C-alpha cells in the first residue's frame, strides 16, 4: 500500500507512516525531517518538537531528527549544519511492508542551488522504517563523480524527555570527547551514567555503538552503525533563552543524542557510497 503525502504545518508536504501495529511517524519532505515517532505501545511522541519551530522554505525545523549534511554544526564555511535540512527532498518509497512495518525512502541530489554552496555532485538517501517499539533511520551518501569529496554529517536526534536534569546517558564511559562548552579537546568520559546538569555540547570520538538514555519509568536504547561519533547536546537554560524557535523551558524536555561523523571528515571516493544509521528502541 503506497502512502500519499499530505499537507502539514506551514502547508509543507509530509508523510504520515502508520505500521500495522499502530506505530507511527511523520516525515516532512522539507529536509527529510522526522518530526514525530510514537511506538505501537503509545506513550506520545518520543521525539521532541519545539512548539515555536518554524515551518517554511529556508527555515530549519527545531526538533525531531534533522539531517546535517555536508557540514556538521559550524565546522566549515557553510550555513550551520549544512543545507540538506532546509532543502526539499523527493519521495522514492512510502508504503506498508509485507511484515507490517512502515517504510519511507526520501532522496536528494545536487542542484544548481546546492552547487553554489558546495561544488560537488552527490546523491542522498534517507531510509526510515518503524514497527513495534523501534525506529530505524539510515543515511546513504553517494559520490557519482570521479573526484573524491569530504563531508561531515549527523542524524541530529532530539529525544523527548520528562526532565533533562533527571536523565542520564549510559555507555560512554571511557570514550574520548571534545567539550565545545569548556573548549577542551582531549577529554575522557569518567562517568558510567552521564548526567545532564546544564549546557552540554560534546563530540564523543569513535563512540560505543550501543547507548541507553534513562529516565524515571522509561528508557531509550540507541544503536548506531556506520557513524563513528556520538554528539550529546542540550543548550541549558541560558543558551536556550537565546533560541527564538525554542519555547521557554524547552531545554528541560529534550536531549540530543546524535549519530555523527563529525570529528574526522569522511573522504568519499568517486563512484562509492557511505552509509550510517541509528536505531531507537523505546522502553
Keywords for this entry:
mainly beta, 8-stranded antiparallel beta sheet, 4% helix, Beta-galactosidase, Chain A, domain 5, 283 residues, 21 strands, 9-stranded antiparallel beta sheet
* Class from secondary-structure proportions: mainly beta
Tell me about the largest β-sheet. 9 strands, antiparallel
Radius of gyration: 18 Å
Q: Beta-sheet strand percentage?
A: over 45%
Count of all domains: 1
CATH fold-level name? Beta-galactosidase, Chain A, domain 5
Order of helices and strands: EEEEEEEHEEEEEEEEEEEEHEE
Shape category: globular
Provide the helix percentage.
under 10%
Q: Give the CATH level 1 class.
A: Mainly Beta
Number of separate strands: 21
Count of helical stretches: 2
Unreliable sequence segments: none
For the terminal residues, how far apart are their CA atoms?
A: 29 Å
Average pLDDT: 97
The CATH architecture is Distorted Sandwich
Oligomer: single chain
Report strand order across the widest sheet: 6-7-8-9-21-18-17-12-15
Amino acid at each position: 500500500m503506497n502512502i500519499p503525502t499530505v499537507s502539514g504545518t506551514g502547508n509543507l508536504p509530509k508523510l504520515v507512516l502508520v505500521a500495522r501495529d499502530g506505530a507511527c511517524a511523520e516525515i516532512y519532505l522539507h529536509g527529510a525531517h522526522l518530526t514525530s515517532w510514537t511506538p505501537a505501545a503509545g506513550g506520545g511522541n518520543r521525539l521532541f518538537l519545539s512548539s515555536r519551530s518554524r515551518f517554511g522554505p529556508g527555515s530549519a525545523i527545531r526538533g525531531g531528527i534533522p539531517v546535517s549534511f555536508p557540514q556538521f554544526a559550524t565546522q566549515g564555511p557553510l550555513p550551520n549544519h549544512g543545507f540538506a535540512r532546509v532543502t526539499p527532498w523527493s519521495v522514492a518509497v512510502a508504503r506498508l511492508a509485507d511484515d507490517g512495518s512502515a517504510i519511507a525512502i526520501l532522496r536528494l541530489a545536487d542542484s544548481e542551488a546546492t552547487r553554489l554552496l558546495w561544488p560537488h555532485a552527490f546523491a542522498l538517501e534517507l531510509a526510515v522504517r518503524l514497527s513495534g517499539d523501534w525506529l530505524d533511520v539510515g543515511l546513504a551518501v553517494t559520490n557519482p563523480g570521479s573526484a573524491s569529496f569530504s563531508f561531515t554529517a549527523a542524524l541530529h536526534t532530539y529525544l523527548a524527555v520528562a526532565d533533562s536534569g533527571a536523565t542520564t546517558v549510559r555507555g560512554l564511559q571511557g570514550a574520548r570527547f571534545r567539550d565545545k562548552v569548556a573548549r577542551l579537546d582531549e577529554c575522557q568520559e569518567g562517568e558510567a551514567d552521564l548526567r545532564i546538569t546544564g549546557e552540554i555540547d560534546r563530540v564523543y570520538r569513535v563512540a560505543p555503538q550501543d547507548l541507553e538514555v534513562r529516565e524515571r519509568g522509561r528508557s531509550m536504547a540507541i544503536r548506531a552503525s556506520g557513524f563513528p561519533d556520538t554528539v550529546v547536546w542540550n543548550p541549558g537554560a541560558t543558551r536556550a533563552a537565546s533560541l527564538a524557535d525554542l519555547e521557554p523551558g524547552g531545554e528541560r524536555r529534550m536531549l540530543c543524542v546524535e549519530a555523527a561523523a563529525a570529528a574526522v571528515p569522511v573522504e568519499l571516493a568517486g563512484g562509492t557510497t557511505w552509509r550510517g544509521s541509528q536505531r531507537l528502541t523505546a522502553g
